[in-house]
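During the no-cost extension, the postdoctoral fellow (Dr. R.K.) reprocessed legacy sequence entries with the updated structure-token encoder. One reprocessed record is reproduced below for audit purposes.
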Amino acid sequence: MFLSVFEMFKVGIGPSSSHTMGPMVAAANFLDRIRNAPFEVHGLKGSLHGSLAFTGVGHATDRATILGLAGFTPDTYDNEKAEAALDQIRETGLIHPRDLPPLNFNIKEDLRFDFGPALPGHANGMILMATDKQGDVILEETYYSIGGGFVLTEAELANGKDTDEGDPVPYPFKTAVEMLDMAQRSGKSIATMKKENEIARGGSVKLNDGVARVWDVMNNCIERGLVKDGILPGGLNVRRRAKGIYDALIAERGMNLTAPHTINDWMITYAMAVNEENAAGGQVVTAPTNGAAGVMPATIRYWLDHVPGASKSNIPDFLLTAAAIGGLVKFNASISGAEAGCQAEVGSASAMAAAGLCAVMGGTPEQVENAAEIALEHHLGMTCDPVKGLVQVPCIERNGLGAIKAVSAASLALRGDGQHLVPLDSVIETMRQTGHDMHEKYKETSLGGLAVNVPNC
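Re-encoded structure tokens follow.
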């Protein structure tokens, strides 16, 4: 099994990888279908189903779908151009995709929110249609946004398509047991095995440049979030808090008045900076999702800024190790909140961050696996119940606590020798089963939990 580090860490836009990035990607893919069609298309229509319908407005799913149909993609997204395109579509009722004639599209009528039962393949389903001159559907495709910006057509999902397509890799582990066995037999770290797999598929230049960009985008997101204040969009009137906390922490430095637990405030602030940017629709990196995008960069910044001996030169090992763990979770369970609750998002992110931190602090493969197991185990059962369908409450703070758990898990694992009772594979399987049994109202539909118990929402 091979899942690239650049599939786990995708550069995109907020607020959601499954509800914003995924639909935009699906719409862009549908344009390619139209470009290759042997007939002339005159218009576009679509419908959003399941969680994409219930929390679509709060996650900007409709906006992302329309922009995808206009040719925008998450990795090259330009907000100024996007706003101009939306204004043009509203005024003219036409979409102007590249290499296609203008296509009829009425924003109010041609993209429908279907609040009935979800489509059978996944909680995040959408149907895109192309019409002829009379408005009759002549091309239709069902897409599923399965978490982390990954998108599959109905046929691909039914056929069990995964991302393991291409040349063989030297270390194709599908489970943590296989990963540890390969590490023991080869004498190599998890990061080294992952690196050799990446080079076998894409070469060293792509790997080095890509990893550098991933960290640059992550860190830039933190920096933007630390200097911005104001109210987040969406109607909840949630204030940005990262800047105020950060400013206070800077002012307290050197005063010898802070308690030891203040280090947690640094971790939370880094994570909140990212997730406030995500909530505002800024550029983020899925890690492994947008809703959990703050855990990984917060843990790395904590390590770089507060741990003696930390070096930027080891960031690739951090990210590669984390991606290896994330791949195991996605392959054997889920990273989608709509499919398995927030245990699949922040829980997975915390496990990935714990593994990465443990690795760069000298942990053995066994200790790294233990760190991931501890972090994921203590997120089991966590629901996804965003208030008003926005990736704000409880999501922003939850990322900060996920980072704290990641650091604690890595530290605890480093105090041991890697031997432990519960294997990571067992925790991943437990998370899968728990997600399967979890009621849908606790899986990103905003039909239960905090989403219905917070007053005036």
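The chain has a mean pLDDT of 96. The longest helix spans residues 204-227. The remaining legacy entries will be reprocessed before the final report is submitted.
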